[in-house]
UniProtKB/TrEMBL annotation:
<dbReference type="InterPro" id="IPR036188">
    <property type="entry name" value="FAD/NAD-bd_sf"/>
</dbReference>
<dbReference type="Pfam" id="PF00890">
    <property type="entry name" value="FAD_binding_2"/>
</dbReference>
<dbReference type="InterPro" id="IPR012831">
    <property type="entry name" value="CobZ"/>
</dbReference>
<dbReference type="InterPro" id="IPR003953">
    <property type="entry name" value="FAD-dep_OxRdtase_2_FAD-bd"/>
</dbReference>
<keyword id="KW-0274">FAD</keyword>
<protein>
    <submittedName>
        <fullName>FAD-dependent tricarballylate dehydrogenase TcuA</fullName>
    </submittedName>
</protein>
<dbReference type="GO" id="GO:0016491">
    <property type="term" value="F:oxidoreductase activity"/>
</dbReference>
<dbReference type="InterPro" id="IPR050315">
    <property type="entry name" value="FAD-oxidoreductase_2"/>
</dbReference>
<dbReference type="InterPro" id="IPR027477">
    <property type="entry name" value="Succ_DH/fumarate_Rdtase_cat_sf"/>
</dbReference>
<keyword id="KW-0285">Flavoprotein</keyword>
<keyword id="KW-0560">Oxidoreductase</keyword>
<feature type="domain" description="FAD-dependent oxidoreductase 2 FAD-binding">
    <location>
        <begin position="3"/>
        <end position="431"/>
    </location>
</feature>
Amino acid sequence: MVDVLVIGGGNAALCAALMAREAGASVLLLEASPREWRGGNSQHTRNLRCMHDAPQDVLVDAYPEEEFWQDLYKVTGGNTDEKLARLVIRESASCRGWMRRHGVRFQPSLAGTLHLSRTNAFFMGGGKALVNAYYRSAERLGVQVRYDTPVDGLELQDGRFVAARSKGQRFEARSCVLAAGGFESNLQWLREAWGQNERGEWPADNFLIRGTRFNQGVLLKAMMDAGADVIGDPTQAHCVAIDARAPLYDGGICTRVDAVSLGVMVNRDGVRFHDEGEDFWPKRYAIWGRLVAMQPGQVGFCIIDSKAIGRFMPPVFPGVRADSLPELARALDLPEATFLKTLADYNAACRPGTFDHTVLDDCRTEGLQPPKTHWALPIDKPPFTGYALKPGITFTYLGLRTDETAAVRFGGAPSPNLFVAGEMMAGNVLGRGYTAGVGMTIGTAFGRIAGTQAARAAEPEEAAHAHA
């Protein structure tokens, strides 16, 4: 029997395994995927959001706790547990030295991500390099790792963890950390959660999954059935508008189209439906998946002209190009007359200003609904480009309710030896909305807390008393 069992193989699970091992516990990590797909959604990430009161190597200026909290409060609309959110924020200030000791390297933000140079620390080599560094460190420290081991159930006794089951095998441990992700790859669950809309459509049938195919929510469902306290809305998720040609699973970050704030978005009826210039892209990019999900056919079209080229990260698939707007409407199969009227109304409403995509500039529309509040330039310089976009689900926010100790709760009472981290509890901090890099911040903070607490819970009683 090991001291600590960690279920999951992404950032949160690895942080928990490393912290528990550093605390002297024997650790076994069970990853559902084969080795080549290890790392869950973390392999698709790029950075984590960090509080800092002064410049720190790759981070410029300062990003104090209060500003981080206000950013989080704004994107969630207040749907967050302030105590746990501030805990995550404070943890983000001190985790990078520890990450470096485990082989993670950081780099300054690249062109196209400059809005984040003050707030987010980028991983050199991206999330895949971070995951590989953690696995190397875990193996060097003696953490046992089992791949192709999806856990399908837990044995619990009065809220206490006893064992986990996988493919007929039983894994006992003195304590356990659950970090097996949300249910975003479970298309049937997504379908049930989103239901049918007033047009008779099942929106989830048109969703793409940006992240791993292995997050089926099996363990989350098992915990819900076992009476664990739950938090969050099953339809809330990190949901981004991504290229409609992206694969069903594992498209990752390169399927994103970051041109929305530089152009206009129309639905398949050729009509605009939201303010494209509401706020900086890193704070707003994760609202567009949900907005598109509400449109007919769950599809939207990002329309730009040649003035936007070079001002956003080029996506992996080229857009549909045309020398005129009527030609673009036909190429995208949009109703030509409505589309041209939408663009003409938008162009006429644009007020002259000083365009600057690095600030909330004064280029806006007037007398237009919905407005475009910033970066509103007429779309009038050919060639024109259009991207068809669908909702891309990264991770779901339905999860297990927890507290500052990362304990799973049953009827309000914390489990003495079962803890949770990462996507399985992110809904405590993210009731809705998103701001770039905060998912990795939550996973890192709560992974480290859960690992420390699990190691402590696994100690013989007399040693635990000595710690207390």
